[in-house]
Amino acid sequence: MNRVVITGKGVYSCLGKNVVEVTEALKAGRSGIIYDPIRKEMGFRSALVGNVEIPDLKKEVGRKDRKAMPEQAMYAFVSTKEALTNAGMSQDFIDQNEVGILFGNDSTAGAVIEGVDLLRAKKDTTLIGSGNIFQSMNSTVTMNLSTIFRLKGVNFTISAACASGSHSIGMGYLLIKMGLQKQVICGGAQEINPYAFGSFDGIGTFSTQEDEPSKASKPFDKNRDGLVPSGGGATVILESLESAQARGANILAEIVGYGFSSNGEHISNPTKDGQVRALKMALEMGGVKPSEVDYVNAHATSTPVGDGFEAQAIHQVFGDNGPLVSSTKSMTGHECWMAGSSELVYCLLMMENGFVAPNINFNEPDEHSAKLNIPNKAVDKELNTIVSNSFGFGGTNSTLIIRKFAQ
Amino acid sequence: MDKAQIIEKVNEFLMEEFEADAADIVADADMHEALDLDSLDYVDLVVLIDENFGFKTTSEDFQTITTFDDFYNFIASKVG
Fold it and tell me: Which of A14, A167, A186, A299 is catalytic?
């Protein structure tokens, strides 16, 4: 079995357009949430959303490639370019090796609706244009990036609701560990246009505390009332240790565990037991004792039900006096399909810079979160072992564990 | 709409949507080579003709068009 390391990271989110901006926001506990009046006009219960600007790629990506890219592919392009640069992985290297790509994505609502609107208006399929088919397939991110970066290894998209971005890294980890791939670009991407979130808003999942957008997302707090949707792109470059060392790459961390499970119960409500199974599987795979974990980046989205189950699961696995726990969703909102990847990037930034990002807006614990060690201000701390949780609709659970690299 | 107006309008959308350089748009130059057109681009030309000139065409119509001038004349024959 190969050891698997991370040699590059990139992110484009409501906290910033690159890892430098995002690190500053994480340290400062700065929220990226805004009020979007367009959503209110459209009939949303909540107009809260992450503030993510669509990048202008005219100078970086040719017309033929650009027309096939929906917004989430553009976000993923930016984060992937940053990650490849960070990893020192050149196009020449990519051209000479079988570099793969696995991304988490679970919707293309904006492109689908745009195409259907055109068809209804024009009554002629040709007048939808040539780009829409590639924008509206769920694998749009991997099909676009594999073409632009001329990738020759594994190439597919993982759809697992809000755990998509985490499972994509987990699957990349397993492929490299088993010796089937040497380098895999892994990540997650999330569209943020209103069409992507209308039906999600409709089931009453989003926070309606619109008065102060930066205070709406409050994972683990007793007064939480729902999540705030957000999006963007996040990328990590995974390699076998052998590949990284042969390239002379800077190793950011080692992935030591990936746990997964299915709840097998309700379509939207989580369960403690499923989450515990994923956590224990990841710890066991990595040979990591709960006491060795310095920090848990929780999935906690700020919904009343979800956070409660996760608090119980973390307490069951780590016990009293457990590791520091925070949900960066308090600042980012819920980055959904991308969250598992962006949050692993946030963990890498914390590990690199020696701090734990705060769980902002955590002012009053409930009966379950009171048993966890949740800071609402950034904490300076050397982090050697970090756990990242991601859970999704349908009861899909994923836990990743990263460790500071040591020979 | 006279031919000069057609040429102006076509060149405008080719520069805007196909990011063509003005210098590459020469009346008797091979349009397919100059714009590096592939099968998907013809679909987008059908869309642009509908948006700019209001008539429907098919990508098969482009098989008889070689130069930019052929393209201008094709549109003129439909809207003239």
Answer: A299
User: What element of type H or E holds A341?
Assistant: helix A339-353
A390: three-class secondary structure by DSSP: strand
SS percent in chain B: helix, strand, coil, step 5: 70, 0, 30
Per residue in A102-141, pLDDT (tens digit) is 999 999 999 999 999 999 999 999 999 999 999 999 999 9
Task: Using CA coordinates, name the residue in chain B closest to A126.
Answer: B43
The C-alpha angle with vertex A185 and arms to A106 and A381, in degrees rounded to 5, equals 95
Taking the C-alpha atoms of residue A355 and residue B62, their distance in angstroms, rounded to an integer, is: 61
| Residue ranges of domains in chain A, CATH in brackets | 4-247 (3.40.47.10), 257-403 (3.40.47.10)
Structural tokens at position A79: 């984060």
Neighboring chain B residues of A64 at a CB cutoff of 8 Å: 38, 40-41
Supply the pLDDT for residue A407.
87
Chain B residues within an 8 Å CB radius of A130: 40-41, 43-44
Only one residue has tokens 């202008």, namely A56
Q: What is the mean pLDDT of each run of 10 residues along chain B (80 residues)?
A: 94 94 95 94 96 92 93 92
Q: A168 with A340: CB under 8 angstroms? A: yes
Residues in chain B: 80
A124 vs B contacts (CB less than 8 Å): 50, 56
Q: B58–A64: do the CB atoms touch at under 8 Å? A: no
SS3 assignment, position A311 = helix
Rounded to the nearest angstrom, the minimum Cα separation between A118 and chain B is 11
Count CB neighbours of B58 within 10 A.
12
Q: How far is B61 from chain A (nearest CA, A)?
A: 13
CATH 1.10.1200.10 fits B3-79, yes or no: yes
- The C-alpha atoms of residue A55 and residue A11 are separated, in whole angstroms, by 13
* DSSP H or E stretch at residue A188: strand A183-190
Q: Test B18 with A122 for CB contact under 8 angstroms.
A: no
Spatial distance between the Cα atoms of A146 and A150, rounded to a whole number of angstroms: 6
